[in-house]
Specification:
alpha/beta; 6-stranded mixed beta sheet; signal; ABC_Transporter_SBP; ABC_transptr_periplasmic_BD
């Protein structure tokens, strides 16, 4: 009798726990939905998003951190740009967009956008052909407003006279600081961008594809890229990793890429040791000039050379600085022939959807013994 009563009691208790568990799961889901809403704004969220939260790996979640802060409604996209302002709200489906920076134009196009006002010049036009497949400035109805991304060359009145309903520009080269006040006076919204690393790529892709009302591109392009990168990072060892130096040779000096640079981000995320990170006085700095004495003191295992142009041009610049120099030749990386010229397409330009190829190449150089 006592055993039967215990059995009934236990069965009843288990039933209560199951019901409580179901209630907790519903409460968790409700909390996720509630926290994603912005006060009086009805945020658009698919039914699968709540279920997917638990399935995202910690590394992928970190990569998506900035993108997850972007809020989408039926008619607007709400986010922080890099101007220092509070969140801004951009109406979906602008009809006449000006993109005044080459790599941003490529990303806007990749995310389903159309451009009516753009920036030309040899470098930008080569980039358009490489990433978009053609120079869109030659398309009918497109206005080339300047031949450089430097705001010093811009005719602001001419840009505003085209009456764009959205302007996208960089915080670099005085773009935003030059344009923001006149655009605000003309009631034209401006998005200011500082773009470095795959986290920024994912954020801006999400912003752009939703402004263009093409959220399906997130799954077909950006989500595939971040899945590949998360797998590569997860495969990287965290101990006994190589010491590396990433440099950008110029005519008059050689600069080292710090953690805030595009290449520095990849090096850090793949757990290699960037030997110059301690040299940065300003943590937001992208590069710092470096001399042979510092190279010798840090003595890296590997040296990655960032190519602004072709590999041949980069080799000529390196020779002009280091050819037959005994200090250079005493470096471990030089003695072991571990100097690598990193292609412009993947490590100087913003590779956008091909960021996974950048990570893959870097991983294979750092860890040739590990198969992805």
């Amino acid at each position: 009798m006592f055993r039967n009563v215990c059995k009934l009691t236990l069965t009843f208790a288990i039933g209560l726990l199951i019901l409580a568990g179901c209630g907790s799961e519903k409460a968790i889901a409700d909390n996720v939905l509630t926290s994603s809403q912005n006060n009086n704004t009805d945020v658009v969220q698919s039914e699968n998003e709540v279920a997917d939260v638990a399935e995202v790996s910690p590394i992928k979640r970190q990569l998506l951190k900035s993108a997850d802060e972007v809020q989408i409604t039926e008619t607007e996209v709400i986010f922080k740009d890099d101007s220092g302002r509070d969140v801004i709200t951009i109406q979906k489906n602008p009809q006449k967009v000006a993109v005044l920076y080459g790599s941003h134009a490529c990303l806007w196009k990749e995310a389903g956008g159309d451009i009516k006002i753009g920036i030309g010049g040899k470098g930008a036009e080569a980039l358009y052909k490489d990433q978009i497949g053609h120079n869109f400035l030659e398309d009918e109805g497109v206005v080339t407003i300047a031949k450089s991304s430097s705001a010093k060359t811009w005719d602001i009145e001419a840009i505003l006279a085209e009456q764009p309903d959205l302007i996208i520009c960089s915080t670099a080269m005085n773009g935003y600081s030059t344009l923001s006040a006149p655009a605000e006076a003309a009631n034209i919204p401006v998005i200011a961008i500082t773009y470095s690393g795959v986290g920024d790529y994912l954020k801006w892709f999400k912003v752009f594809c939703n402004i263009n009302s093409k959220p399906e591109l997130w799954d077909s392009i950006a989500n595939k890229t971040v899945d590949d990168i998360a797998h590569i990072i997860e495969s990287a060892p965290v101990e006994n990793t190589p010491k590396v130096l990433s440099i950008l040779p110029k005519t008059d000096a050689v600069s080292a890429n710090l953690a805030a640079s595009d290449m520095g981000v990849i090096i850090e995320q793949l757990h290699a040791i960037n030997v110059v990170d301690d040299l940065a006085e300003d943590l937001s700095s992208v590069r710092v000039d470096i001399n042979l004495e510092t190279m010798l003191a840090t003595n890296p295992d590997m040296i990655f050379v960032q190519c602004i142009g072709s590999e041949e041009e980069a080799r000529e610049l390196m020779d002009s600085h280091f050819l037959d120099n005994p200090v250079w030749n005493s470096l471990e990386a030089v003695k072991n022939n571990k100097i690598y010229y990193m292609p412009k397409r993947l490590f100087h330009n913003r590779p956008n959807r091909e960021y996974n190829e950048s990570y893959k190449m870097m991983f294979e150089l750092l860890y040739p013994e590990i198969e992805l």
